[in-house]
Amino acid sequence: MGVSTSCVEKGTAVVTVGFPPVNALPVAGWFALAEAVRAAGRDPEVRCVVLTAEGRGFNAGVDIKEIQKDGNSALIGANHACAEAFAAVYDCAVPVVAAVHGFCLGGGIGLVGNADVIVASEDAVFGLPELDRGALGAATHLARLVPQHLMRALYYTSRTATAAELHAHGSVWQVVPRGELRAAALTLAREIAAKDGQLLRLAKAALNGIDPVDVRRSYRFEQGFTFEAGLSGVADRVRAGFGKEGA
């Protein structure tokens, strides 16, 4: 259980997340993921990072049980830890390829929304069930995956979009059978890593520099409302009823 890094072939580092049963990460897990991605990007031998996960799905967001147990201290910790992990992916000195299978929810959207390229398995679904969990956030990153009005509809309804739908919008590079996901991600990473390492790092910095939205600042703005929901008591009320009508 935890976050591990392996170098399966020259120029490519694979960062793997494993927090069973559903990869809902505790605060320490988000910080560990941030450090692993940053460390991989700092390695002069690495030209591409593949972000993947073990188990039933790619990521189910934050560990709600930790927040229910520890209250505002855990909420503050989760806010800072998620911001660090998302920023680590975005700021990674080299391109990051996200290999997504199963569910990619909540904080998972923050990770893939900040990745450079997404490869997904046919069973992958993407969404923000935040309103059903007494939370807010990561609309910043969902807006990088789908058009504005679709993002709002998905956010308000807590529905998910399939890998095929995101592929149609151009945000998922490739959709493959589940058993072929790792190979597809590594094939793409290999193609990227074949480029000059110094030039790749310059390209990553240049592309981040022309982004129309500062993803770090906009996400932190969203988090203010997440904390407000927690302080007001509405977050606990919604979580207690799992967001069901009449709860």
Automatic annotation (TrEMBL):
Keywords (A to Z) from UniProt:
Lipid metabolism, Lyase
Similarity annotation: Belongs to the enoyl-CoA hydratase/isomerase family.
Please verify whether the record's keywords include Lipid metabolism: yes
Q: Which Pfam families is this protein grouped with?
A: ECH_1
**Which InterPro entries does the record associate with it?**
ClpP/crotonase-like_dom_sf, Enoyl-CoA_hydra/iso
Instruction: Output one GO MF annotation.
Output: lyase activity
Task: State the Gene Ontology BP annotations.
Answer: fatty acid beta-oxidation
Highest taxon of the lineage: Bacteria
In Swiss-Prot or TrEMBL terms, this protein is called Enoyl-CoA hydratase
Lyase recorded as keyword: yes
